[in-house]
Amino acid sequence: MAAELARHHVRCRIIDTLQKPLPYCRALSTTTRTLEVFEDMGILQKAVDAGIWLSGRRVAYAGGPARDYPEQSGDFPYSHTYLNIPQPETERILTEHLSALGIEVERGLTLKGLTQDDDAVSVLLESSDGKMEETQFPYVIGCDGAHSFVRKAAGIDFEGEMMPFEFMLADVKIDWQLPSGYSFQSIHPAINTPPDFLVAVPLPEPGRYRVSMLAPTADMTSELGTDHGIQSERPAPGLDVFQKKANDLMGEPARLSALRWSSIFRISMRLATSYQAGNVFIAGDAAHIHPPTGGQGMNTGIQDAYNLAWKLALVLKKKSPQSLLESYTLERRAEAENVIERTIRATMNTGPAGFKSDRLADSQLLVSYRSSSWVHPIGDQAWTSDLRPGDRAPDCAGLRQQRIGYPFRLFYLLKGTAHVLLFDLRDPTPHCPDELHALVRDLRSEFGEEIGLYLRIIAITSKPQQLNVHTVSDITWVFDPDESFARAYSSQNKASWLIRPDGYISWCHVGYNSQDLLPYLRKVFISDMST
Questions:
Q1: pLDDT in tens, 509-530
Q2: Are the C-beta atoms of 308 and 286 separated by less than 8 Å?
C-alpha cells in the first residue's frame, strides 16, 4: 500500500510494531495477477529471481499410489500459475522498493489510539522506548492483520467463525525422490471429521519445503492463543512430530531434517462488514481471513492495496471526488466473499485429484468488478466483444511503433499511474485524426491542460499507411500488424476502451464520440467547469 501510494506521488508514513520482519515463511504462493501488479510496480524481475516456479504436483489419495500432474502454462501471461516466494523475501523486495521511492518503514512504533472527525484522523503513536506522539492524517489505512487495532478502533465488525481443528506448519528439508519444483499432497479421507492430509510446497532453497498438516488431536482443545494465524506463544511441534505424520501419510520414503521453524496455526473465516469507516480504511487480513488453500491470502491483500491506492491518490490531489473511495468496499469486499467461499469449499472437499481448488480462479485473472456502480454499463446494442466494463484488461503481444525496431506487449503501454483511453482503429478512415483531435480538445476544455497527467490516449491500427499519424498531438499511435489486439479484445473497428490504473476496464463503447465518454469521466474526475 505504501509503495503504491508513493508511486502515485502521495507521501505517507508506514509504521510497524515489530523491530524486524518475522522469519516465518507464511505467505508463499504468488499468483499470476500479483505478478502483473509487480510488473507494473517495476519489481517483477526481483520477484522472479527470489522465487521458484511450481512445476507440478504429486498427489496420493487414501494410501493409493501417487500420481504426478505437471503444470500446464495454458494462456497465462506467465509460464506457470504460481511463483513460490518465501514471505521474508517478498517483504524484503517491497521494503527495498519502498525505500527507493523515499519512504522508510518506521519500526518499533505502535498505534495506541485512533479517533476521527470530519477534518482528520487523529492517532496516538508509541515508540519502543515509551515516547508518545500525537498527530493527524487525512486518511489512515490499517494493514495490521487479523487482529487489526485499526479495524477495532474504527468500529468495523469482523463477522465469521473459527475452524474447530488446528494445523501445523514447518520449514524443513526433505530427502525423497520428488522432481524439483513439485509440490506433494497426501489426503486420507475420514468420516465425520476433517480428512488427514500433508502438503509439502517447494521453497527456492534446494530440498527445502514448507510442510503443513493437521495437528495431533490432543492439541486441538487448547484455549491458548488467538483464533487465527501462527500461535507463537504456544510450544512449537518438534521434528519428530512431523516425521511421524509424514511416515503415516506420504506413502513413500522421506526423511525430514534441518527444521528451521515450526508452529501450530489456526484458521478462521471472517469478513469485515465494511472496508471503510469515514477516512479510515482496512486491507488484507484486517479485512478478510480464510483457509490458505489456493494461496489466496497475501495475493488478495495485494489486490486490495492496488485497488485503493490510485483512488486515494486522485482524491488527495483533488482530481477525483471523495465518493470514488466508496468503490473500494464495493469492489473488494465482494471479491473477498468469493475467496472465502471458494477456499472453504476447497479445504473441506477432497478427492482423488487432491484439493479441489479452481486453478484459473486461483490465478485471480478472473476477478471482475462488473457489478460495481463505478464502471459504466454498455448501452450500445452494437457491442460485440465478450469483455465488459469491470473485467481485467487482457494483454497482447506483437504491437509496434514507428522507428522502434522490435515488437512489444500492450501491458508495456498500460504501465504507469494514469487511466488509458484505447481506440481500436483497425480500418481507419481519413477523418479519424480530425475526430480524435476534436476529442482531445473536448477533454482539455472539460478537465484542464493537466488531464494528460491522469489520462493517456492510445490509438491502435493495423493500417498505418492510411493515416498521417503526426496530425494529432497527445496521442500515442501503435500498429497492430497481426491484429493481436483485435483478437485479445474481440474488438470491432472503432471500439473505445477506458482502462483504469489498476488494469480494469471501466468504460467501453463503439466509436469515440465524447457525448458518451464525457459524462462518465465527470463521475471519475472533477471537471474544471464544475469548479
A1: 988 767 889 999 999 999 876 5
A2: no
The distance between the two most distant Cα atoms of the chain, rounded to a whole number of Å, is 78
Beta-strand ranges (E) seen in 305-412 are 350-351, 354-355
Half-sphere exposure of 181 (CA within 13 A, CB side): 13
Cell 498527530, residue? Answer: 135
pLDDT at 349 over 90: no
- End-to-end Cα distance, the chain: 30
Instruction: Give the amino acid at 219.
Output: D
Consecutive H or E run containing 218? none
How confident is the model over 317-338, as pLDDT tens digits?
999 999 999 999 999 999 999 9
Sign of CA dihedral 307, 312, 317, 321: positive
DSSP secondary structure code for residue 156 in this structure = -
β-pairing, 280-282 vs 276-277, is antiparallel
Contacts of 241 (CB under 8 A, 6+ apart): 168, 216
DSSP state of 408: B
Measured CA to CA, the distance from residue 138 to residue 318 in angstroms comes to 13
Three-state secondary structure call for residue 162 = strand
- Distance separating alpha carbons of residues 386 and 209, to the nearest angstrom: 41
What is the distance of C-alpha 178 from the center of its chain?
A: 30
* Three cell numbers written together for 308: 485503493
What does each C-alpha distance from 89 to 42, 84, 304, 348 come to in angstroms? 16, 10, 20, 31
